[in-house]
UniProtKB/TrEMBL annotation:
GO terms for molecular function: 2 iron, 2 sulfur cluster binding; metal ion binding; monooxygenase activity; oxidoreductase activity, acting on paired donors, with incorporation or reduction of molecular oxygen. The lineage of its organism: Bacteria, Bacillati, Actinomycetota, Actinomycetes, Propionibacteriales. Keywords: 2Fe-2S, Iron, Iron-sulfur, Metal-binding. This is Non-heme iron oxygenase ferredoxin subunit. The keyword Iron applies. It comes from Nocardioides glacieisoli. Residues 4-103 form the Rieske domain. The keyword GTP-binding does not apply. PROSITE patterns: RIESKE.
Length: 115
């Protein structure tokens, strides 16, 4: 694993993802309370930035919405939870070190290869 600093923890708003580029990957960094997630920043349905959508906390966890067509993606698994998206997006390991967020873009948590 090769963790790289992605951002400061206080840069991530509760209901909005932060767009970050690490190497060749565009990521959406989001949080649910003390948990921080890194997900591929491209909707698998329409290829628009997920970081431009809202982050919503639900009973089952935390999701990010694609602003264009309303697809929701689970931040833990990258799986879409409603249509029109049917394919998952990559999720990456996150390590919070003090006030900084580090992401490993060499490994995906869900086995999905980033676009």
């Amino acid at each position: 694993m090769a963790f790289e600093r992605a951002c400061a923890l206080d840069e991530i708003q509760a209901d909005k993802a932060l767009a970050v580029t690490l190497g060749r990957y565009d990521l959406a960094i989001a949080r649910d309370g003390d948990e921080v997630f890194a997900i591929e920043d491209t909707c698998s349905h329409a290829e628009v930035a997920l970081s431009e959508g809202e982050v919503e906390q639900t009973d089952g966890g935390c999701q990010i919405e694609c602003w264009l067509h309303g697809s929701m993606f689970d931040l833990r698994t990258g799986k879409p939870t409603n249509f029109p998206a049917t394919e998952p997006v990559a999720t990456f390991p996150v390590d919070v070190r003090g006030t900084d967020v580090f992401v490993d873009t060499e490994t995906t948590l869900n086995g999905v290869t980033p676009a």
